[in-house]
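User: Second chain of the day. Same drill as before.
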Amino acid sequence: MLYSDSTHLANFGDASLWPLYLYFGNQSKYERVRPATGSCHHVAYIPKLSDSFHDFYLNLTGEGPPAEVLTHCWRELMHGVLRTVLDADFVHAYTHGIVIKCSDGNTRRVFPRIFTYSADYPEKYIFS
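Assistant: Same format as last time:
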């Protein structure tokens, strides 16, 4: 299960981070939500559109980017990040599986699957 949420890093200023998290869906939700279990894994950090993009668009057109252009750029940025995360190695593992020695001593072929991508409202409307 993938999840993203914009995170502010300080009580002052505008320092923020946009992590993409991975959770294993076959774990109990009561286990997953406890931070001490280590169930959450950071997969990537999604960059934000820089101020230089706004300046570039302003110099190009004489006005700031409209909401439709920003939505399109955010969507393309997110798709670029997902193309990087879901690379050829992941596609190979998705298709053919990964052989893993499990904690019970048995060796199993595991097929990774992404069942959900969850985001808060700001991320949902940015990528819709």
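The two ends are 19 Å apart (CA to CA).

User: Great, on to the next one.
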